[in-house]
């Protein structure tokens, strides 16, 4: 009998939202306890800051350039490699329960397998998962949670925020007390909400296993991704009026504009509402109109959603203990990308490679019977290192097609094995607006270079010293004093850039 | 709001006449457009049914065998505007290029139809490759 693996992901969660990472809004005792007995990564960096490319990286251990999912709406090829296939071959029982999003949700012609199972009343298999039970942020779409809610609690289907508006754009409609976009008072009972449903279904699947099965379960919570519509019954947990403004949100509009004007022009253009380069940012919402109270309310609701996740994970872990597996289970907790959540006066995400989107929670609590020594790891690591870590836990060779390495267990291990450089990509083409950038995180710097597109001529970039300037307020791209380090970082970035997959896969849906 | 637009093309190893026989016949769409499982043509109206159960009525605007252009408009209320155009252009006696473009409001609908259109062209290419008339 080997080590079992519980892989827990959230969607669009910042590093600083966990207690163990210094967060003060959410109470996260379950996740904090995992961090206390395991490895807590202080600079885990995604290879893309949107869902589909990043989730495909978690599954394949590959860069977006390699697996081919270069933006949301591009499906992961059906024959893409999968760590779940490798684990299944090694004898593991496998499941993904919750949000997958390797293929587009918006699928009127039923082109994508991921959306076919709930329609057919089946549960996979898919991409190496023998059990594939799906959910997303609300109660619509061809996923198991939506079908369950429509069948068991039809009165609740309309309680969620309507994610798309009549023009099929991401909704800008505001709600709550402040009118913040994508905020909504959801009267759904907590036990019907997708966070608890995902935990319930995970426990049910675990209960179906034999005691001596080895298993790999990807428990994938759709929250705290917008819309911010947790059950109203839970809103008492965090009073938005008591929420301090984030350090990255200057309350003065003049100060925000100065900071934005130091960055490539698509930053200010989005803020002013003249250009939207990511479909998931509401087209008709102008960030410059966002008030401080709206930032507070979004952060409060985000914190409530994270508390619910922590409690749901606690239930799953108790079920694992009750099955007698407590000493044999490795738990890895992370997310796919971050959320701006008020930084620079912005919400949501896009081609903005700063900590709000790029610094992620990542915790590995190894099986207790492996007697780990808890550590905090400051060396940068990537999400593409997660899949190889599963292989190591399972005692199988890391496949040659994986481009990451098993996560280091401390900074000494990271140094010995050559960690320290992490690459991130962004490419988007959205109704005539193209943005492409490549980013390297290394040696206390984050350096992004822009490729020619409709917004940039190829000369622009961003260079931040994340030690001296943790909020990335000062773009040192044009600072002569940084010319040498900039040159070195860019050369390193291009030296290690993976070749793009050819031919490029076409965008097949908005998301 | 500005219209959304997509355009895909494919080179087919078959004559333009062979390809036109397929794409110029509105009733044959179920043979090559993925996810369309039903089709009824009455006069200049075509009604298609998708694999998700969605029924979409369409007006056939142009069906010109000389120009080899087929143009249609989805009249579903979801669309404030839609126009889809298929052009078959002969490259020589044995090869042609097929261009499928869509303009739509809401603009996101152009993207969604575009996914099907791209796969549809691949299917046309496979169906017609080497065929003669």
Give keywords.
heterodimer; A: 511 residues; alpha/beta; Alkaline Phosphatase, subunit A; nine-stranded mixed sheet; four-stranded antiparallel sheet; globular; B: 133 residues; alpha+beta; Alpha-D-Glucose-1,6-Bisphosphate, Chain A, domain 4; seven-stranded antiparallel sheet; 3 helices; 7 strands; 44% strand
Structural features, described:
- The complex is a heterodimer of chains A (511) and B (133).
- Chain A has 511 residues and is α/β, with parallel strands linked by helices.
- Chain A has one domain: Alkaline Phosphatase, subunit A (3-Layer(aba) Sandwich).
- Chain A has helices at 29-37, 51-60, 64-67, 83-89, 116-120, 144-152, 194-207, 253-261, 265-271, 292-322, 355-358, 386-394, 411-416, 483-495, and strands spanning 4-10, 39-45, 93-98, 131-134, 174-175, 180-181, 215-220, 329-335, 360-365, 375-377, 381-382, 422-430, 433-442, 445-450, 461-465.
- In chain A, the strands form three sheets. In chain A, strands 1, 2, 3, 4, 7, 8, 9, 10 and 11 form a nine-stranded mixed β-sheet that branches. In chain A, strands 12-13-14-15 form a four-stranded antiparallel β-sheet, with helices on one face. Chain A has a two-stranded antiparallel ribbon with strand order 5-6.
- Chain A is globular, with a radius of gyration of 21 Å.
- The two termini of chain A are 40 Å apart.
- Chain B has 133 residues and is an alpha+beta fold.
- Chain B has a domain at 4-25 and 58-128: START domain (Alpha-D-Glucose-1,6-Bisphosphate, Chain A, domain 4, 2-Layer Sandwich).
- Chain B has three helices and seven strands.
- A seven-stranded antiparallel β-sheet of chain B has the order 1-7-6-5-4-3-2.
- Chain B starts with a strand and ends in a 5-residue tail after the last helix.
- The A-B interface holds A 73, 104, 106-111, 119, 142, 166-169, 279, 431, 506-510 and B 1-2, 4-5, 8, 33-36, 50-52, 54, 105-109, 111-112, 114-116, 118-119.
């Amino acid at each position: 009998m080997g080590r079992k693996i519980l892989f827990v992901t959230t969607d669009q969660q910042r590093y600083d939202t966990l207690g163990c990472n210094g967060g003060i809004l959410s109470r996260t005792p379950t996740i904090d306890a995992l961090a206390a007995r395991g490895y807590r990564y202080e600079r885990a960096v995604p290879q893309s800051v949107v869902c589909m490319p990043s989730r495909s990286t978690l599954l394949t251990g590959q860069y977006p350039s390699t697996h081919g999912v270069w933006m949301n709406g591009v499906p992961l090829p059906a024959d893409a490699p999968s760590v779940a296939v490798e684990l299944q071959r090694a004898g593991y029982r496998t499941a993904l329960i919750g949000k997958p999003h390797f293929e587009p949700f918006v699928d009127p012609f039923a082109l994508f397998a991921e959306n076919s199972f709930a329609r057919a009343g089946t549960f996979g298999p898919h991409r190496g998962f023998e059990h594939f039970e799906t959910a997303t942020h609300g109660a619509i779409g061809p996923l198991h949670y939506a079908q369950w809610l429509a069948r068991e609690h039809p009165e609740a289907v309309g309680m969620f925020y309507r994610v798309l508006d009549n023009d099929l754009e991401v909704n800008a409609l505001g709600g709550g007390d402040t009118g913040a976009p994508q905020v909504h008072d959801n009267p759904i009972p907590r036990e019907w909400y997708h966070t608890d449903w995902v935990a319930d279904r995970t426990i049910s699947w675990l209960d179906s296993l034999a005691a001596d099965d080895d298993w790999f379960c990807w428990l994938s919570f759709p929250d705290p991704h917008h819309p911010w519509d947790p059950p109203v019954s839970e809103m008492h947990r965090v009073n938005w009026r008591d929420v301090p403004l984030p350090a990255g949100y200057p309350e003065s509009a003049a100060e925000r504009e100065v900071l934005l004007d130091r960055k490539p022009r698509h930053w200010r253009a989005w803020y002013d509402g003249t250009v939207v380069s990511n479909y998931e940012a509401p087209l008709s919402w102008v960030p410059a109109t966002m008030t401080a109270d709206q930032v507070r309310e979004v952060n409060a609701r985000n914190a409530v959603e994270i508390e619910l996740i922590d409690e749901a994970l606690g239930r799953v872990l108790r079920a694992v203990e009750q099955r007698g597996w407590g000493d044999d289970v490795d738990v890895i907790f992370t997310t796919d990308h971050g959320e701006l959540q008020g930084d620079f006066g912005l919400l949501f995400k896009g081609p903005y490679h700063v900590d709000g989107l790029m610094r992620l929670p990542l915790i590995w609590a190894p099986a207790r019977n492996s007697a780990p020594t808890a550590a905090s790891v400051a060396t940068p690591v990537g999400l593409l290192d997660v899949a190889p870590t599963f292989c190591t836990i399972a005692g199988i060779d890391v496949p040659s097609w994986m481009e990451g390495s098993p996560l280091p267990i401390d900074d000494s291990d990271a140094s010995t094995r050559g960690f320290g450089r992490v690459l991130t990509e962004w490419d988007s083409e959205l109704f005539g607006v193209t943005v492409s950038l490549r980013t390297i995180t290394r040696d206390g710097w984050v350096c992004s270079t822009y490729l020619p597109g409709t917004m940039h001529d190829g000369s622009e970039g961003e260079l931040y010293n994340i030690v001296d300037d943790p909020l990335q307020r000062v773009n040192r791209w044009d600072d002569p004093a940084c010319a040498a380090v900039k040159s070195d970082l860019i050369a390193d970035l291009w030296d290690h850039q993976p070749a793009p997959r050819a031919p490029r896969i076409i965008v097949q849906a908005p998301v | 709001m500005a219209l959304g637009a997509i355009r895909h093309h494919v080179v087919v190893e078959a004559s333009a006449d062979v390809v036109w026989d397929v794409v110029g016949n509105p009733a044959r769409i179920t043979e090559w457009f993925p996810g369309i499982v039903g089709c009824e043509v009455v006069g200049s109206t075509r009604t298609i049914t998708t694999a998700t159960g969605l029924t979409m009525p369409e007006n056939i605007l142009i069906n010109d065998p000389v120009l080899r252009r087929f143009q249609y408009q989805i009249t579903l209320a979801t669309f404030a505007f839609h126009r889809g155009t298929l052009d078959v252009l002969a490259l020589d006696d044995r090869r042609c290029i097929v261009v499928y473009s869509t303009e739509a409001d809401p603009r996101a609908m152009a993207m969604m139809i575009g996914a099907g259109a791209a796969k549809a062209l691949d299917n046309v290419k496979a169906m017609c490759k080497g065929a003669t008339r």
